[in-house]
Amino acid sequence: MTITIEVSRLGLLYDKSAKALDDVTFRLEGGKIYGLLGRNGSGKTSLLSILASFQQQTSGEVRIDGEAPYENERIVNQVCFIQENGYLSESFKVRDVIKLASDCWPNWDADYADRLLNQFELPAKKQIMALSRGMKSALGVTIGLASRAPITIFDEAYLGMDAPSRYYFYEELLKDYMEHPRTIILSTHLIEEVSDLFEEVLILDKGKLVLQEEADKLRSRGSAIIGPADAVDQFAEGLTILSEQKLGGTKSITVFGELGAEREKRATADGLTIGPVSLQDLFVHLTRKGIGSDERKHG
Amino acid sequence: MFDDRSPIYQQIADGIKNDIVSGVLGEEEQVMSTNQYAAFYRINPATAAKGFQLLTDEGILYKKRGIGMFVSPQAKGMLLEQRRARFFEEVVDKMAAEAKVIGIPVMDIVKRLEQLNGGEEQ
Hints:
The complex is a heterodimer of chains A (299) and B (122).
Chain A: E1 5-13, E2 19-28, E3 33-38, H1 44-51, E4 59-64, H2 73-76, E5 79-83, H3 94-104, H4 110-119, H5 133-147, E6 151-155, H6 163-179, E7 183-188, E8 200-205, E9 208-214, H7 215-221, E10 222-228, H8 229-236, E11 240-247, E12 250-256, H9 261-269, E13 273-276, H10 279-286
Parallel strand pairs in A: 3-7, 3-8, 5-6, 6-7
Antiparallel strand pairs in A: 1-2, 1-4, 8-9, 10-12, 10-13, 11-12
Helix pairs in contact in A: 4-5
Chain B: H1 8-22, H2 34-41, H3 45-57, E1 61-64, E2 68-71, H4 75-102, H5 106-121
Antiparallel strand pairs in B: 1-2
Helix pairs in contact in B: 1-3, 2-3
């Protein structure tokens, strides 16, 4: 049960001049765990809330399973959108929220929801207003997981949880995804903890899509090179340099792009050390000064 | 969990190769599934599958339809041959270069190797 998401030339204006989203185009095949990465204010939440029919775009098109999602009953209950400080009514009890969610999503698994509530130590009788930030987050991810919606979106939803709860969430997410394959989108600016969960990554910056790529491939496109400054400079010719640092006669640079076997061989001969770059570091470099905009790539 | 020096799928493949060479995984033995690997290392199953793909491409593992992945009968022999071929370049040459830099005479190295070897034969 995989549903394709197609986004074409999507734009969203806050007012006449401020663009929250600017000409965003991509296609998600579905059935994968996607990472949507962007700095604060990059347009992640705007994009996701359009996918979830929480708001409508100003221009462009969204197709989910071939149809426009906005006010489309067939699509709306296929998409579960969990935000960090959601839409939960403060006077409701945990039990009421769970009941409401079970009515919303056709694939709801009540036993699974109970198990998660139990694990997160969320008392059914407690009112939402009496929950801590971490407990509210835990309730959000419980709903997201138990919804088993074909498209489940976690918009920084787990950031309020403490480390043990977050790790439990990652484990559950992976386990449940493997048992019930579906499209999962995790949006975050804190990447280190979750980067190994992604199959594909999209990076948004200032409302534009910087890149969409398979996570393993993206990781392989970044390299850190350290060695004597002259040799490093020579090596870097023709490569996209994301960052550089100098310490005495030693220089360290981060480059983006395939190095190729020939260049790698030469590096070793020249006394250079080539190391990997984490997704977190690549993300920081690619979104720092808009360097990545030349590398823009659709689908 | 991973050393971050090479892609995760490469490390998974290398781990399985090590297990085959050391005998932890025998010929025709079944390997854990990609999902088990994914859950254990907390990584995307597609990443784990990529490691398995490398190994099937090299003929180290083979797939039994609907059952899982198994170690090829020729896997250990192939891996040993590969490692022997790389041994002098990757291990001995590096050691010789390091010895030269820090001033250890070749004869000292030879003596040490003879000692080690002698110890093993007794």
